[in-house]
Amino acid sequence: MKNANDQLHITVIMATYNMPDWLEKVLCGYEQQTYTNFDVIVADDGSGPETQAVIDRCQERGQLQLTHLWHEDEGYRRQTILNKAIVAAQGPYILFTDGDCIPRADFVAFHAAHAEPGRFLSGGYCKLPMPTSEAIEQADIKSQDCFDPEWLKSRGLNGGSQLRKLSASPGWGKFLDAVTPTGATFNNCNTSAWKADLLAVNGYDERMRYGGPDREIGERLENMGIKGKQVRHRAVVVHLDHARGYKTKESLDKNLAIRAHTRKSKVVRTPFGIEKAEG
Length: 279
Known about the structure:
The protein is of the alpha/beta class and 279 residues long. The chain has helices at residues 20-30, 49-61, 78-88, 107-114, 130-135, 138-143, 149-153, 160-167, 170-179, 195-200, 213-223, 249-264, and strands spanning 10-16, 38-44, 66-70, 93-98, 101-103, 119-122, 126-127, 190-194, 227-230, 237-239. α1 runs parallel beside α2 and α11 (213-223) runs parallel beside α12 (249-264). It is globular. The termini are far apart.
C-alpha cells in the first residue's frame, strides 16, 4: 500500500486477559505486517503465566518491538491498563486492538496511510464462530488464508455482511464505508487516534467496566471536535470467538448512564481517567 505517512511511528495497543491461545495467533498476525514502523504494547489486565509464556516466545522470535504491560488481577480493570498503555506509547499515533483480533497483513499500513489531524479511524471486524476460530493455525495467518472468504466459509463462517468486509476491493470498500448506516464509533478492537488527542480527553473513564467504554471516549473526542472516519470495510481484522463472563447488567446500566451524561453535558475531559481529580 502506498503510504504518505511512511515515517509515522505507530504504537499498537492490544488489550488481553487470559486468552493465550488467541493472543499467540494475533501476535503472529502482527509479525506479517507490510508496514514495519510500529511497536506493540500488550495491555494485560492481570493474565496468568500462560500469557507470559506467549509473550516470551514472541520476544524470542524478535520480529516485533513488544512491551508487556501488566497489572495485578483485581477484577475487570481494562480501562486502567489501557490508560497506562496510552501514557507508555512511543508513537504519536495509537492503534487500538484486542488480543482476540487477527490483523490482515495490510492492517497497520492502512491505519498509517489514512491517519489525519482532527480525526480518528473507526474500523470494524469479521466475527468468527468458535469452530472457525479454533481452525485457524499460524500457517493460515502466514499465508493469509484466514482472510479468504471461501476458506472461512469452508470452516463454518456464514453471513454476508461479515464476509463483505473481507472481500471488498479498496474502491468498493471505500464506497461501502461511505454508504453504511453504521456510525463511525470508537471501537477498542479496531480504532486509531493521535496520542495527543487521547491525552487531551484524559484517556478512558476508569469507572467503566464492560459495555461501551470505548464508545464513551469516542464521544468525548467528538465533543472536542475530533471526528470519526468510517473504515470498517477496509481496515480488516477477524475476531476470534470467546465467552464474556464479565458482562453484567449492572455494568451495562452504569456505563449507559455515564455515556448519557457525556453526551448531554458535552464532556470532553473525564476526571476519572489518566490524571485523577484530587479529592
